[in-house]
Amino acid sequence: YGNNYSVRLEYYFEPVGVISAGVFRMDIRDYQFAASGIRAEEIGLGGEYPGYLFSTQDNAGSFRVEGYELEYSQQLTFLPGILRGFGVFANYARTNYSDPELAYGRAPQTMSGGVSFRYNRLNTALRWSATPDTLTAATTYRPARHMLGSSVSYQLTPHTSLFLTGRNMLNAPITTYRRDLVGYIQGMNKYGSNWTFGIKGTY
After folding, report:
1. What are the angstrom distances between the C-alpha of 132 and each of 102, 181, 187?
2. Most CB contacts within 10 A, which of 90, 120, 133, 136?
């Protein structure tokens, strides 16, 4: 159960652009959370399962999440000639948790930004996003991760267009390190880059 509160201010400027800032807070009761990487010795099972790590779920009495978000985007129509088609955008969010142990797997910060370009029927964008080191359990963490994506679309007719999108173009893995053993990798997942090509119709 919880109550959510948020306030956001936005300022729009000519010809095409917006800058905004917002703050938020969530008060949660009976918060459900998962705990992993628990040593067998800590829960009285060291004799039967020496060296094993366990996962479990539990309820916390109360939990608070609060933070802020900043956003900016603008179409650079004041530039000359073909450069008028360029646009820029960026976003930053910071989140604080009343109990870091209940926020395992949630990045304390998220950042993204990129550039777009429009010319006649062509529309393209290049996007970057990143998260810093993030605790994933009592004994593990996920190091900073950067991702790059892109999109290209071309308007064939007023109702149809071709599109191509790419996600995780750098094939950034999700790596988990042990906090108590410096340099020890507990797991690494590589999902590869994801590309989608198709035709879109709107009627």
Report:
1. 18, 20, 18
2. 136
